[in-house]
Amino acid sequence: MSYNAAVAVATASTIDSTMVDDATALRDTIESTADWVSSTEGVRALCLYFFMGLLIGVPATGLVAWGLGSPRVAFFMTQLTFLMLFVGWLLVGVAFAVGALLDDTCVEAGKQVYGETNELAELVECGNSSASLETYNQVWQTLDAAQAQLGATSVLETSYGFSTNTYSVAAAELNSANYSRNRALLQGMYSSYGVLEQDCTSLSDPTKTVLCYVPGMSALNYSDQCATGGTNVNSAACAQQSQILSAAGMTGAGYLIGCQHLDTLALELNNQICDETVGGAVLLIVGQSLVGGLYLVLLAAGCMGLSRFDPDYYSKVLSLNPNPSHNTTPNTSTRG
After folding, report:
1. Angle between helix 236-257 and helix 260-268 axes, rounded to 10 deg
2. With CB atoms counted within 10 Å of each terminal CB, which end of the chain scores lower, N or C?
3. Is the pTM above the cut of 0.70?
4. Residue 9 and residue 5: Cα distance in Å, rounded?
């Protein structure tokens, strides 16, 4: 939204191209990742079925070894169990490492939300805001011109916490870093200039910030009506919409200048992702640990089966102790 608004009110040379490129790259990365996850769903399902088949195959192999009385099958069971035990505990290690990383990230996200020193700000740097500030400067000047055109009915910046109603370099530096102040100005214009709630998500859902238009105006006809040589260029509606576009550009630029994206990321991590993700990682670690413990029991049973299922086992035992019930220890006790 902030980029679109800036395009509408500023020349191409002042648009924050880095913001555009980064946003486009981020969007493409998210979309390509989602497409990749969707396209590999079948492969992941086959891997899951294969792994579950091995899980079931281990005790099934033990039953076959017991039924056939075969030490060879029992030996195969021990090797398969050892492999699955290795894989199981490897997954425990991976899950523990991921859980620890997630927990540390969530702790740092919580610090970011409360304004404390944290590693998240160093990991995701705020970046150079000079281009965004340049956009902010020009957009505020466009806002001043639109306010002069509309006259006394214009929404004023000081009504929403700004230090002044008129652009200056010092005022731009002071007010651009306050995202909430700029967003409040935009929301105030929506309310004051008759923007319809059903046409504006920002009014129906105050948690979202989108670009909205006054009645009778849209992205399709704004240029035809309000651009130089437009059919309605001197109308109040064009002046109001120009102010809205300017405030939207100031809001978008202020979002980057004030590093609001870091706070938004931290808040979403802390409130929407951390609890469920870390809790799931803990449950995964517990589950994999239990599976590893059960495989230890199966491994012990398989090792015992190597000898118990050998048909020559008992003959070998008897050859070593032909009369196991006879006590060969001399009786030195005396009868009374």
Report:
1. 70
2. C
3. no
4. 7
